[in-house]
Each structure stands twice: as C-alpha cells, then as structure tokens.
Design brief:
Number of strands: 13
Shape: globular
Oligomer: single chain
Strand order of the largest sheet: 6-5-4-7-10-11
Radius of gyration: 24 Å
Structural class: alpha+beta
Length: about 400
Amino acid sequence: MTLTTPVQERSTRFACPNPPCAQFHRPGAGNSTHWSWTGTHKHIERLRCTACGREFSEREGPLMARSTLPEETVIRRVKCQRWGVCDEGTADIGAVDLKTVHRFQRVAAQRAETHHRQSVQNLEVQGVHVDEAHAKRRPQQVEWVHTALAMGSWFLLWGDVGPRTQAQAAALVAQVVARVREVPLFLSDGWKAYRAALLQVLGVLYRRRRRGKRGRKPPPRLVAPKNLFYAQGGKVRNQAGQVVEVSRRVVFGGPRRFGKQLRLRQLGTTIQTAFMARCYGTLRGLVAPLRRRPRCLSWNPTRHRGRLWLLVSLDNFVMPHKSLRQGRTPRTPAMAIGLTAHGWTSREYIWLPVHTAPVLTKQMDERIARLLTPALQAQPIGRAQVPMHTETRTENEQEAAPLPKAA
C-alpha cells in the first residue's frame, strides 16, 4: 500500500503526468525541476521531468488546473463544501457566479473519485458496514445513497447513488472486496438483497450428490465460503412507527463463530449498525439534498452524485474525527486506516496532483467485472472443483470443495 500523503515542500510536491514515465504520479520523487514561468503575471511555474523529459505545468493535476481564480478563493470554496454550505451561499461568500460553483463541484468531484479509485487499494479492513440511505431529488424522484464504512477507522470505502436493487448492492460489495486484502466481516440492516449480493460476489460452487442412480443430477448452486461472515441488525417497529425491538441475525458464519470473529477482530461484542447511522448523520448534515425534509433538492443526477463524492473525499482525508483522536492529536479516517501520515489541510488538498493511470484503472475495472460475474456463469459445468484458499480472497474462478453430505 502506497502512502498518498501530499508532500509539503513546494519543489517536491509535483508529479509527472506522463503515464509511460517510470516516475509517473509519484510526488516527491525528485524528478521535477524548474523550467520557466508562464501566465499573465508570470505566476504559474512550468516544470520538466528529468526521467522522461516532458514539460508540464504546476497546475496539471491539482484542483487549481484550468482555473484563473486565486488560491485563497479555491480554498474558501473547499471549506464551504466541507461545512455544508449550499451552492448559493458558496457563490455569495466567494463573490462568484453560481455556474462557477457548479463547475468547481463537477471538477472537484471527478478528481476526488479518481483519487479514491487509484489510492484506496490493498487495505487492511477487519469489518465493513454496508447500508443505503433514502434521498429525494427533483422532480419527485427518489435516489438511494449506497455506502460502505470501514469499522474502527470510520473510512468510507465507497459511495454511490442509484436505485435500491440487488445489482446496486452487488456493485457496492464488489467495490469493497476489490479494495481490501482479505474478506472482511460484513454488517448491514435487514435488506435481503445483501445476502444475494454477497453470494454473487464471493459465493463458490457446490454440486450436491445425487441420491440414487436415476434421475437428473442436482444443479450446482452458490454457497458461502468458510471465511465469509455476515450478520444483519434491524429495527422492529409498531404501527405508530416506534422502535419496540432490535433484531439480530447471523446469516453466514454461525452465531458462535461470528461472535468469536467479532472479539478476535476487536469490533465489539454486539451486532449493530450504529457506526453507519452516525456516518449518515454527518452526510445528511453536510449535504443539503440528503436531509430528511430539504428545501434545496438536486435537479441534476450528476451534480447530486458529485456532491456526495466531494464530501466523501473531504471526510476521509481532511476532516478530523473526535472519536479517532489520540491524546491531543487529531486524526482523520485516512490516518486511522494507514493511507496518510498526517491530516491534510485545505491547501494540501487542492495542490495534491491527481493523474489518471490507464493501466491501473483497466486492471481495477476488470477485477470488479470478474467479481460481479457469478461463479455459476463464469465456469462450465464439467470443470473440476478447486478447494478454497483461506489466506487470499477467493474470486469467482474458484469453487467450493465437495461437502460430505448434501445440504
């Protein structure tokens, strides 16, 4: 896992934007040298990569790219988005047009998602909360926000906006599994789609033995691997809508084994989704369209998704959490999960170079596509069964070992 902490020194914070270069997207590698000054006031620095010889601007990659605004204005916009200021308020505070704020959101959200896709990989995560939140969008439309939260670090592994379907739940689970080293422990509410989604992404083939010598052979089916642990926690309400009981159910792993895994992974002793509910409280407080009864709803689905991604990036890398504090040292979720060495300031966030790596993007897309292909479709019927490896995460190319008796 590579640290994504931005380098603080001005001479070493830039990175080469040339994908074939050996020093591509490596800030602080010492391969960037001063070349010239450009701009109307000669205030923009051009650099040259000593490894590949390419010239590039200091604003190629950071949030300041293709922007004529001063640095303090961009920092003020980031802070407005961090504290949940609406678009009209951000335009009024920054003394800019509303369309300028919308363009900033679009560019910042695309950059935040690209940075998240490329940097959040190979993480050590013990448990994950997956959940969906109801959100409204004009005209009279409903959007669901699907998020995955790493337990213990409060790091948002993934966030997306879409319908409340099994395909969307499977996409969320696939994004989580593709970015962790080993299969984590899953917790969710009582939505039934998560069970089918976990079987689609992590399920292995099991062929039941035929009873007798006549008749067709039983068709193969997907079963949960031994290293998959999943439980649901839901609320039981009466006719008045009051919570009268909290239901807890272990779906995969068995109650005893699941409780043992909770203690071994230091995730508590109770099946609950309070961490996810607290995270949604932060999201609803800082993103106006996600609130219960908002007055400023989103018309554009792209802008609606962009607001979510921008807040996810700021929440992970810029905003410190009080529950993660060590003594008097504030910590962000990215520090708690091991992605950064210190909390980022708004200035470091806007100057962090983010360049799209085509090879890395293609590899991740292919991996997620393999995860979303169920094992029943990925393998022919006559293929031999392969036992599952417990240390490495099992993908759909592997099948379950034959069980002694039919289920």
